Amino acid sequence: MSFLRVVDLCKAFDVNRNGTATIAVSEITFDLKEKEFLSVIGGSGSGKTTLVKMLAGLIEPTTGYVEIRGNLVKSPPKNLTMLFQDYNRSLFPWKTVSENIAFGLRNIQIDKNSKRKRVEESLSMVGLRAFTEYYPWQLSGGMQQRVALARALVQHPEILILDEPFGSLDAQTRFELEDELLRLWESLGITIVLVTHDIDEAIYLSDSVLVMGHPSQTIESRLTIELSRPREQLQTRALPEFSDLRERIYSSMRGMSSALKSDYKTNG
Asked: Do the domain assignments include residue 2?
C-alpha cells in the first residue's frame, strides 16, 4: 500500500460568465512513498498550490480522491502540516519566538511540561535557542522562516507540505535553509512535498519531481532524481547529471509554454 495515493484528482471552480468552469487541476494520479521528498514544479497557473491544498484536506476535490495510509482525506489530517508561502504573515508580531512556536500545539492535548519540551526541541532543530524571547519583527527573513518551520515541526508531522517556502529569500539564505531542510528531513524521517518555481531547488532537494503543465493543469512528467546523498550545494549542482536533469525539466516546461503561445496565436 502506498503511503500517500492520489487518484484522478480534479478541481473545477465556479462557472464563469461564459458558462464554463475554471479547471485548476485535471486528472492527477501519483503515489508517494513514506519518507520520500517530492517537489512539484510548474509555471504560474499550473495548479501546484491547488494540488497541495487538496493533499492537505484544505480544498475538497471535484472528482477523484487522496488517501494517506489507506485513509481517505476529507479534512486536514492530524499527521500532516502545511507551511504556506507568506510565512511572515502567519507569525504573530506580538508573540515571542517561543510563543509563536507553541501556537502550533494549540489543538494537541499534552501537558504544559511536554509542550515546553517540544518547543525547546523545535527551537534547537532550527538553531533558534538563543532567540527564544525575540519577536518576529526583530528577526531577519531567514530567521522568521525558521520560526515558521519550527512551528510546523513542533506538531511532529509525518507529512510536511511546503508552498514556495524560500521564494522571497536571498540566494545565500535560501541555500542555507535548503540544507537545513534536508538535515531535518533526514534526521526526522518525515515525508515532504515541496512546491517551487526553482528548477535547481527541486533537483537539489528531491527524490522525485512532478512537472505540472499549463494550460493542461495536470502532470506532464515525473522524474526520479538519482543523485547521491548527502548533497552539497556547489558540488552537487556542478555534476553533469544535475545539468542533464535541469535541461530535461526546463525543456518540458518550455515546451508547454511554446504550446500555450501557439494556441494563443491560433485562437487569439
From this structure: no
> In angstroms, rounded to a whole number, what is the distance separating the alpha carbons of residues 268 and 265?
5
- How distant, in Å, are the alpha carbons of 5, 38, 69, 191 from that of 33? 9, 9, 10, 8
Using a 10 angstrom Cβ sphere, with 0-12 exposed, 13-18 middle and 19 or more buried, the burial of residue 215 is middle
Q: Please check whether residue 67 lies inside any domain of the structure.
A: no
Predicted confidence (pLDDT) per residue in 121-176, tens digit: 999 999 999 999 999 999 998 999 999 999 999 999 999 999 998 887 889 989 99
Count of C-beta atoms within a 10 Å radius of residue 130: 9
The distance in angstroms from the start CA to the end CA of the chain is: 47
Rg (CA), the chain: 19
Query: What are the residues whose beta carbons fall under 8 Å from the beta carbon of 114, sequence distance 6 or more?
Result: none
φ/ψ region of 35 (left if φ > 0, alpha if ψ in -120 to 50, else beta) reads left
| Domain-located, residue 25 | no
Q: Could you tell me if residue 11 is inside a domain?
A: no
Give Cα 105 to chain centroid, integer Å.
Answer: 21
Q: Are 22 and 10 in contact (CB under 8 A)?
A: no
Alpha carbon distance 230, 195 (integer Å): 21
Q: Which residue has the cell 507529512?
A: 159
DSSP tally for the chain: helices H, then strands E: 9, 10
**pLDDT, tens digit, for every residue of 206-220?**
999 999 987 778 899
Cell 556547489 appears where?
234
Question: Residue with C-alpha cell 465556479?
Answer: 14
Kindly report the pTM of this predicted structure.
0.90
> Domain containing 252: what range?
34-58+72-210+217-267
CATH number of the structural domain spanning residue 164: 3.40.50.300
Total domains present in the chain: 1
